[in-house]
Amino acid sequence: MQRFATSHGEAHVFYPEATDAVCTAALLLDIDPVALVRRGMGKGRGGSPDFALAQYVNDRPYAASSLLAVALRTVFRTAMKGVCENRPGLADETRPLRIVLPAVPANGSGEGGGAAMVARLFEPLGWQVEAAPVPLDETFPEWGESRYLRVGLSGTLRLADALQQLYVLLPVLDGAKHYWVAPDEVDKLLAAGEGWLADHPERALIAGRYLARRWSLTRRAMQRLELARLAEADDREAEEFDNAVDDSGETAYATGPAPGGPAGQPAVAGATSGSVPEPDAAAAAKPPSLAEQRRAAILDALREVGAARVADLGCGQGELIAALLKDARITEVLGVDVSSRALSTAARKLRLERMSERQAARVSLVQGALTYTDARLKGYDAAVLSEVIEHLDLPRLPALEQAVLGVARPSAVVVTTPNAEYNVRWESLPAGHVRHADHRFEWDRAQFRAWAERAAAAYGYTVVIRPVGPQDPEVGAPTQLALFRLGTPAAAGTAPAPAGTSATTGAATTAAVTTPDTTTPDTTTPEGGDTR
Fold this sequence. Notes:
By secondary structure, this protein is α/β, with parallel strands linked by helices.
């Protein structure tokens, strides 16, 4: 026998059977209902605080609820962590387990409770589930069944995994927590759900019920779960994905003489994802920044193709979305980013919660990785990849091409990226360095044109290359833009480039495709591509 003190009663562990073949550990939680009331935690499931008797007469001492989940963590703390000091390798072994819960509440609240909910929660984790209703009174079967289930779970897995799953799913089945759900509950959920929750088909239901239907916390948990799922699929750390927003909220500057500006002015801005250094002119007559010129060029391209429904892929903090919403011709905007922090910042800057219902209906923000096909991206008139491709490792670029050009297939795609040749004009940018620490490569004009023409040919698009920003006679403009249009030049309304036209001159060029080919693209990278 073992006894453990908890904040709401005593937990007893005893072993009805302990042999070389089988060991049964029974946990009995002896709850003091009066103590619960005194601590302000005994209002009862569905009970009203104005109904005093409900605080004393409830199912807390009898049903496997969130109280039992807390007791599991108190009693089996090292087992839940997968630690066994006396036999270190034992905790890592999978073994046949059977768990019996004599009385489990499984309230649906419109979410399909009962035995069906138990199966939905546990079967995807590899458990064989037995769930039978407990009669109100076996002596009087005509009284019918109670809302409680006797649950049996059988499976082969690590004990630590089984306990972590119970710790999360018991409160989910209970549908009510005995304590205030604070923001740190998100961390507890994700810690206990590591390795199984992100891929669970009912993760939204689990997060919502575990967090007592506090939707702000649920949304935060879902964003982090999606980030973990994408990171695992890419075999990377989640922090590598969620790096679009500087935690400090500050912008760093490298000072030096800017192109065309006085010495000592900010020359290179430490940018978040999707931004590049911008020349700074004299304060007296400040021209539009490069970011503003880039957004204007994108809006011009979208007007040219007549796009009304636009997907901003890699939307960052929502600057382009804000510009799109100002254009009455744009009826719908979808913002997609892999960074949950960037999406939260975008929602705050766009003031989504304060928008009118009509305006809010025009915009939606979703989390996703652009290197995976996503049905949510289909059906849009145009997609924008503004300062996005350079943040990908070059071997991942064909996957983005397939997801956007091959599967989503909008009528038009606008891509902007830095022109590496122009970097020599940034006097504070060391030679050989890219403009942002997260840039995996930066292309010169010939490399960008080669990539755009190959991608267009592979997926049945035509493409026009345009400069963005002030033109330099030697190195071109600081940003280069590619406008892809689905179909042949006649269908797209564009003409092939005149013979001899070169992207290195800074003039617009067109790649014409007369026979669309939707097969898998060539995975080779443009010659001379920077793999940093």
